[in-house]
Amino acid sequence: MSTSYPNTNLYIDGRWQPAASGDTIDVINPANEEVIGTVARAGTSDLDEALNAADKAFKIWKNTSAFDRYKILRKAADLLRKRADIIAQIMTIEQGKPLAESKGETLVGADRIDWMAEEGRRTYGRVIPARADGIYQFTVKEPVGPVAAFTPWNFPLNQILQKVPAAIAAGCSIIVKGPEEAPACCAELAKVFEEAGLPAGVFNLVYGVPSEISDYLIPHPIIKKVTFTGSTAVGKLLAAKAGEHMKLVTMELGGHSPAIVFEDADLDVALNVLSSNKYRNAGQVCISPTRFLVHESVYDKFVDGFKEASDNLIVGDGLLPETKMGPLAHDRRLEAIDEFVKDAVKRGGKIETGGERKGNKGYFYEPTVLTNVPLDAKIMNEEPFGPVAPITRFKSFDDVVEEANRLPYGLAAYAYTNSNKTAEAIGSALSSGMVSINHHGLAMPETPFGGIGESGYGKEGGVEGIEAYLQTKFITQASL
Ligand code: NAD
């Protein structure tokens, strides 16, 4: 099957349209660096249209019954599943990840829509017993209003689907600024909602210069809630701006996930699960294991096994069936990864394997294993967001907990042990929004996703996810 790559327009008030200025941004295939198409670059008049559409649609959508919203969402999920092959192809061409990962992302995305469709029918309030006869007091959950969402390029579809289904199931309208690096698969998603019967203006999709769009949308009085997924640095800027205007905020930011391997771990399971998750999406995953902390008694074996898994990984164009890891999504990542590795080596780190760009066409980087990296190296302190695994040894439980909790982030953490006692102890000792022990079990539609500290606040997914788009109103009423 071959899919030609489509150009992407703005989706505003149920219409596909170019930017009023006619401006576009080039889209590049990261596997060969060729310009494959364009995406419209919104200006303020386009954003005004999107704001007015979201405002108008909110007034209708919030009064649409939860059951009718549910039916549209369920239909969208089914349509998304039917189009998964085509959407996956587009995603791989523009983002780089292997086709199987793109398809998996699309199918899990459909499950997210189903989950939130159901949750929308359960936005219960409660009746609170009053102190006096004849008083009836209760709470209702109401949608917060039009939302501005900013989503990144690493999981172009998934990051939108962590936000849009929850927002619209709750009765909100939403303007998404999607990823300029991978816009066309997101446009296919908007078409799915359109065909499922979502009224015009409930979901608007725009692209442009990220800072121009956030500077305009966040302070705008129509917008009542801001939700962002991306780096901690940008998250702080957007949260500060939202704070100036007293907007509700959800921040899904970066992490630097410790992956702890205790002396009694099943090493084969730990190696298999951790190496495949390290290199998934070329390491451009906010919950990717990024600091490997291995007990000294199994350290050498673990390093050898990880090196072997890294060397065996087939790196190439994501469209090829044998590919297990594609290119990095854009040239900025290539430079950033190179800098992490050079800095680690300068400070005494050893490259066990990899450590170089792969080839000179496409943003490929070799699966890389580093050892002896000192704690002051950049890679031990900043999220690497790429295919690099620094492996460090530890001696005791207390030491490894101290190192795991050393950074201000707290998104995901992993541990491997065959002892229930150790599993319980590490589960409670780790400062992290999510902990996965002896398997990789995060980011399912039915489970809450989100960090603490500099990894942000608020949850997506699970029963918590819809709460981000609801506010509680208390009503007390005396009978006449
Ligand atoms: P970046 O920090 O410039 O951008 C990160 C994301 O934020 C992008 O999607 C970008 O479009 C958006 N963005 C940037 N400035 C913005 C602004 N002023 N207003 C609104 N949105 C804005 O860096 P990048 O090179 O695109 O990505 C690199 C870093 O971003 C990584 O190191 C990683 O830490 C982080 N990141 C995290 C996630 C995640 O899932 N949490 C996803 C993508 C990127």
Give the topology.
Layout: E1 10-12, E2 15-17, E3 24-29, E4 34-40, H1 44-61, H2 66-82, H3 84-95, H4 99-119, E5 126-128, E6 135-143, E7 147-150, H5 156-161, H6 164-170, E8 174-177, H7 183-196, E9 203-206, H8 210-217, E10 225-229, H9 232-244, E11 248-252, E12 257-261, H10 267-279, E13 289-295, H11 299-311, H12 331-346, E14 350-353, E15 368-371, E16 388-394, H13 397-404, E17 412-416, H14 420-429, E18 434-437, E19 456-457, E20 470-478
Parallel strand pairs: 7-8, 7-10, 8-9, 10-11, 12-13, 12-17, 13-16, 15-16, 17-18
Antiparallel strand pairs: 1-2, 3-4, 5-6, 6-20, 11-19, 14-15
Helix pairs in contact: 2-4, 2-6, 2-7, 3-4, 3-7, 4-6, 10-11
The structure holds nicotinamide-adenine-dinucleotide (NAD).
The site of nicotinamide-adenine-dinucleotide has 22 residues, from helix 8 and helix 9.
Structure description:
With 480 residues, this protein is α/β, with parallel strands linked by helices. It folds into two domains: 10-253 and 455-475, 3-Layer(aba) Sandwich (Aldehyde Dehydrogenase, Chain A, domain 1); 257-444, Aldehyde Dehydrogenase, Chain A, domain 2. 37% of the residues lie in helices and 21% in strands. The protein has 14 helices and 20 strands. The chain has helices at residues 44-61, 66-82, 84-95, 99-119, 156-161, 164-170, 183-196, 210-217, 232-244, 267-279, 299-311, 331-346, 397-404, 420-429, and strands spanning 10-12, 15-17, 24-29, 34-40, 126-128, 135-143, 147-150, 174-177, 203-206, 225-229, 248-252, 257-261, 289-295, 350-353, 368-371, 388-394, 412-416, 434-437, 456-457, 470-478. It has a seven-stranded mixed sheet, with helices on both faces. Strands 9-8-7-10-11-19 form a six-stranded mixed sheet, sandwiched between helices. The chain has a three-stranded antiparallel sheet with strand order 5-6-20, with no helix packed on it. β12, α10 (267-279) and β13 form a beta-alpha-beta unit. α3 runs antiparallel to α7, α4 (99-119) packs parallel to α6 (164-170) and α10 packs across α11. The longest helix is centred in the first third of the chain and has 21 residues, at 99-119. It is globular. It starts with 9 loop residues before the first strand and ends with a strand. The model has no long low-confidence stretch (mean pLDDT 97). Bound molecules: nicotinamide-adenine-dinucleotide.
